[in-house]
TrEMBL record:
This is glutathione-specific gamma-glutamylcyclotransferase. The keyword Nucleotide-binding does not apply. Pfam families: ChaC. One of its GO terms (molecular function) is transferase activity. One of its GO terms (cellular component) is cytoplasm. CDD domains: GGCT_like. Its EC number is 4.3.2.7. GO terms for biological process: glutathione catabolic process. Keywords: Lyase, Transferase. The keyword Flavoprotein does not apply. InterPro entries: ChaC (IPR006840), GGCT-like (IPR013024), GGCT-like_sf (IPR036568).
């Protein structure tokens, strides 16, 4: 089976593995959302940041990119992703169907948020999200950097996300 990974946030601009091919894709039933507190990569336990997660929502859809892993690197990539994404068990690993722009259905490795996990924080007002991201820094750098990188790549891919665009502008205003 070919290993496809669905990227919707930092995997878009920092996959950390070799990408043999990429295709724009849509995942139905989930929304891209800053609904997970980051206590490792973009915040600390004392000052958590926020990172994107896929939050299950009826009628929602998330546009992103299906990333194909070279066959010879599938096992190593899977081990790497599990170490990276499952560091605090707030994400759940799922094999979900995504649809490419060409209408092709692919099964992709996808990390979705566990709404029962202590780090889940769905429903925070955008202004509160902006204030958190403007102030937090973790092991992989400032939370604002994560937001700005994601917003820039979504724009490059012509993927519209009004919340991300608003947060990007607001956090720049708060940190300038």
């Amino acid at each position: 089976m070919t290993l496809w990974v669905f990227g919707y946030g930092s995997l878009l601009w920092n996959p950390g593995f070799t990408v043999a091919e990429q295709r724009r894709a849509r995942l139905r039933g989930y929304a891209r959302s800053f609904c997970m507190r980051s206590i490792h990569h973009r915040g600390t336990p004392e000052n958590p940041g926020l990172v994107l997660a896929l939050d299950a929502q009826t009628g929602a859809a998330c546009d992103g990119v299906a990333l194909r892993v070279p066959e010879a690197e599938e096992d190593a990539t899977l081990a790497y992703l599990r170490e990276r994404e499952l560091v605090s068990s707030a994400y759940l690993e799922r094999w979900l169907s995504v649809e490419t722009d060409a209408g092709e259905a692919l099964t992709a490795l996808t990390y979705v948020v566990d709404p029962d996990h202590v780090q889940y924080c769905g429903g925070l007002p955008l202004e509160e999200q902006a204030r958190i991201m403007a102030a937090a820094t973790g092991g992989r750098g400032p939370n604002a950097e994560y937001l700005h990188n994601t917003a820039a790549l979504l724009a490059d891919l012509h993927i519209e996300d009004a919340d991300i665009a608003w947060l990007d502008a607001r956090v720049r205003n708060l940190t300038d």
